Every structure is written in C-alpha cells, then in structure tokens.
Amino acid sequence: MAVLKKWLILPLAILFLIVGVFALSVSNVVVSSSDGTNTTDENLTVTYDVDNNTVNNVTDWRLNGTSAAIVNMPFENHSDAANTAIDYSTYENNGTVYGAELDAGYVGNSYYFDGSDVIQLGSVNFNNFTDFTYAVWINVDSLSGDWQTIIDADNDEQLLAINAINLYAIYGRCGNDPDGGWGGVGPEEAVWHHIAWVVNGSEYRVYEDGILLANGTGCSDSYLADTLNIGDSSDSVDEPFAGFIDEVLVFNRALSSEEIAVLAANRTDLVVSQETEAGDTWSACVTANDGFDDSAVACSNNLTILAPAAPPSEESPKGAQSSRGALSSSTQQGGDIPPAGYAEFNLNFGDRVNFNVNGESHGVRVTGIFDGVVELEISSDPIRATFGIGETKEFDVNGDGILDLAITLISKIGNSVRIGITSLAGSTTPAPVAPTETPATPAIAEPTPPNLLIGIVVVLVIIGAAYLLGKRKK
C-alpha cells in the first residue's frame, strides 16, 4: 500500500484549504413577493448569497418547473466559450459560435461580431411561436448602410435587425416594410441599447431602452421555428452584425411593457405582477460566473401565486405605533420645504432624495417606472415597494417598530414621477442635496484571475520546495 510522503502533507492541506475558501458558490436562493402574500398584484424578487470572485450572476426564472425563457444566453465566459454559447434555460438550446469573440459586455461578458460572425442555434424546435419576445443588448460598432441581423429565426421569418438606412427594423412575420413604422429611429455607434420585439397574436410592439418605439398589427399566424441565428441570417443570406451583442433572451410568449422596462433596467432579479397568474408556481435558479467559469446551479423555493385578497384597509397594520411629527424646514433644489410634516419631490428614473429620521440618514430612489406602476427603494435598510398613481404606503425605515414615513405617488409623466413624503414619527428633514442620477450604462471591469488559481500556483511552489528539501536531507 502506498504511503503518503511526509513532505506532501502540508502542501496538500493548504491546497484543500484554498479550494474550500475560494470555491465559487451560490446559496440561500429565495423567491418572495413584494408584500409577502404571493398574490397576482405583487412583483416577485429573487435574493441569494454568492461567495467569492463573482463578475455576474445568471438568473433563470422558472414557471411551473420550466424556464420562462426558451433561450437565456447572457454570454458569460466558460471553458469552451470560443465554440459554445451556453443557454442557461431548461431547454438547453446551446449555440455554436462561428468566429464571434468573447469580450467585455453590458453585464459581465458579451460576444463581439466583426461583420462575418454568427452564433447558430440549429436543429432545435422553439415551440409554437404564436406569441414571442426577443430581448437583447446591442452595441453597434459600425452603421455600414447594409442590413445587420440582430436575431433571426428561420431565414427572415422573424428577423430583428438594423436595415440598410440604419434604422431598427422587423421583417418577415409582421410584414416586409424596411422602416416598419419606426419614425426614423435607429441606434448610435458605440452605445449600448436594450432592444425588444414583442408579438402578441397579430399585434407587435418594439422597444428601445424600455421605451415603446413602434406598435402595429398585421402579423401572420404562428409557425414552428427550427433555427435561430444571432449576429447573422441563414447561410443563404449574408446580413452580418458588426459590434457587441449581450444578454440574449427569447420567450415563446408576449412579455408585458412593465417586464420589458424591468429587463431594460437590467433587473433580472425581478418579475413584475403583470407576468403572473393565480395558480402559477414560480422559482428561480442562479449560476455565479467569475469571468472564467460557472459555479454549480442553486435553485430557490417554489412560490405559488394566489388570487388577490380584498382591497387593503387604509388603517396602519395591527401593532404598529404611529405618532405624527413635522418636517423641519430645509432647502433643496426646487425651493423651500414647508414645516408642516409634508414635502413633495420630482424625480426621474434612478434619482434619489435623501432625508433624516431621528438623526439617521435614509433616502428614496426610483428603481422602476412602468406603464401602470412605479417602484421605489426606501433605504438605508433597502425596502422595495410598488405604487399606483395616488397610492400611499407607510414604512418603518429604521426597524424600531414605529412607522416613520408615508410615501404617496402623486403623478407619473414619461420617465418622471412626483412623490410626497409625510413624516409619521421623529424628524424627517430632506438633506440639501440634488438628486443623483444612476448612469445608464454601468462600467464593466475586465475580470482578474481568480484567487483559486493564484493559490494553486503557491501550493505547487511549496510542493516543489518541499520535494527538493526532502531530497537534500536524504
């Protein structure tokens, strides 16, 4: 029986320790509803813990045990990324990479297409495309004056592209008008944009960055798609894309305007209430990626959607204490705030207003603006809540069991909202700072080699040194 060399014991112990400490993993994946009652009028959110060198976390939402998206391709790096684009959905529609190269993306990595490349998902059945949605991030390298394919099913049957006069265009199933009723809208070079095309029966909608660009009717009946190309059309038609493509999602259902806005805000952790129905069972599976490879997949609890209960009472929740105070007079951009316990603010998407409660700093930020609702994040211990026009909700922002604030959504026009904040307890003084805007495009850093690799190199050096020392002693 072989005996383990004594000089190997310490290096191997260090190696096992490094692997245990630096292994990439996901845990505590939980899906919950915004108000905790799991009804059809609540949004769903997934939360989780990730250990170590994560560049991006891939979320795959599951409806009744099957992926909500039939293609979920965030284009993250992995051991065979030069040849295969992984589909993280349960459909496993992996793509074959022809020439496209992995690069930095809108989130994590993306593929760069040089005008002669394609990713092809062939010999698969994408189900009956009665209704469907394409959603994708693009960054056009060059507006060449030629057609550039973004996503295409079955050779121009369902084509989303940039046309010969550099405008967004749909082609095939919804007609062959190159302009598509778009009013002259197209991308800029070297700028990231989120593009979505939704077909619901005979009707279509097209969005850029969550904003509706065009809608119309006249789409033909459904058909079975056998191939899907990203970055170029079929072999017989050469209409290649030049630039970056990232975060490709394909659904065999029509997403709501609210969900398109969520995707454009890169909120893959959120499913809006418009996507749920009573009796649905939702869950989410998360994969961490460190810029080099994936972790094991970790999945959440199942959450079953219920029919909504009776309209909520206007009274405060049972057991909650409430005492009405006054807003201190303070100056912020826009004028004086009246000292009567109430102030109003105009905010755009991503803007924040800061205030103090009993000497503690807190704030309200606009995290989502949809057709019918607005999502606000109340911090510093973040609470996310959705509001309809005219709706008021009360919050305990410091966790002491006493309601501190009442927030009212007064109005919503385009990407701007007006909210009212009422002090319910203590001092609520808006700080004299202007709202800060969230950048539209996050900076993406190049991934650095994971600590695991560095640790293994160190262990190999230790093993070599120990071996040489052992030989000398002999």
The biggest sheet, with number of strands, parallel, antiparallel or mixed sense and barrel status, is: 8 strands, antiparallel
Total strands: the figure is 34
Helix content: 10-25%
Question: Mean pLDDT across all residues, rounded?
Answer: 77
Secondary-structure content class:
mainly beta
CATH architecture of the largest domain: Sandwich
- Regarding CATH, which class of the largest domain? Mainly Beta
Question: What oligomeric state is this?
Answer: single chain
Tell me the radius of gyration: 26 Å
**Overall tally of domains:** 2
Structure, explained:
The protein has helices at 6-22, 257-264, 451-473; strands at 25-33, 44-51, 56-63, 66-67, 71-73, 84-85, 95-98, 101-104, 109-114, 118-121, 131-140, 148-153, 158-162, 168-172, 192-200, 203-208, 211-217, 228-230, 242-251, 270-271, 281-289, 298-299, 303-304, 331-332, 335-336, 342-348, 352-357, 360-369, 374-379, 383-387, 392-395, 405-413, 416-423, 428-430. It has 474 residues and is mainly beta. It folds into two domains: 23-304, Sandwich (Jelly Rolls); 331-430, no CATH class. The strands form seven sheets. Strands 5, 8, 9, 11, 15, 16, 17 and 19 form an eight-stranded antiparallel β-sheet that branches. The chain has a seven-stranded antiparallel β-sheet with strand order 6-7-10-18-12-13-14, with no helix packed on it. Helix 1 (6-22) runs antiparallel to helix 3.
